[in-house]
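User: Here's a protein and a ligand (zinc ion). What would the complex look like?
Assistant: Let me lay out the input and then the predicted complex.
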Amino acid sequence: MTNSPTPIFDGHNDALLNLYRSDTDDTGTPEYSVFERHDANHLDLPRAREGNFAGGFFAAFVSTPDADYETRETDEGHEIPYADPISHERAKAHTYDMLAHLYRVEAESEGEFRVVRTPDDLRECFDDDAVAAIAHLEGAEAVAPDLSNLDFLYAAGVRSIGLVWSRPTEFAHGVPFKYPATPDIGPGLTDAGRELVRACNDRGILVDLAHLNAAGFWDVADISADPLVVSHTAAHELCPATRNLTDDQIDAVADSGGVVGITFAVTSLREDGRKDTDTSISTLVDHVEYVADRAGVEHVALGSDFDGATIPDSVGDVTGLPDVVAEIRDRGFDEDEVAKIAHENWVRVVEETWG
Ligand code: ZN
């Protein structure tokens, strides 16, 4: 396959975790640098350039302390123990640190890497060949339950909030990791969750439904005035894991004008749901094609989960993105359609939500 010049905008990565988890020097600065190659991880700036990575949603994710994330075998498949909730105070402290890392990288990059806050910022990055970063919260625990720091987070550049990771919060219930099972596990949004969706709509903050259970998904679909967005997920019909969208959910995203970002996590892509990295790019693109065929090519994009998930060896890291695009092209999508899947659908939804 030949490399494609098509710029790729990506719906989800956890590259900030590499900075957050790094050892630090005497001044507290991480020893890890995104300006150098780190082949053990998925995403840094030198490899982003090789992979035509134009930008994406950079997640601030806070783990549950001492959680057991080991996969357990069940009679039919497997599951991961449901993580306990985390406190607002813990989430706030970690999230503010991760946002600080994001802005330090922006400052050190001298214009090569930019945190984007407006549709114009995003377009300028494409024009200037700068990497665009959208500050995203993966799980809303850093938002105070009374929303009293939401304006501060907005002022700090946060333009996308996932209501949950896969655990309960004050706002909603994340879906437990389980295969095979539907996402219809647990209750819908709390009153605070409904208020948060409305408050995000009012401010032009994108609401991400990734990791949400089915009841919460349908509550947001009822409440939200903006296109529905699921940043990193896949088709339940092809891989019946709880993290994936059922056909009626895919249809609802399309009806709202929204976007489904296809994850590269092998446990969401493979028919057997196994954490097996011997997974083809073709298996990944099957999900892209499924959503495009069912819902329309305007409603599917990429949401890699680089540095947050176990991805196919066939992709490897961010430098594998052009091979994914080449496989999409090989399925018969024309250049306009490839551009929509690679970046234009994300740009459209961001513009509609922020604009
Ligand atoms: Zn995730």
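Summary: The chain has a mean pLDDT of 96.
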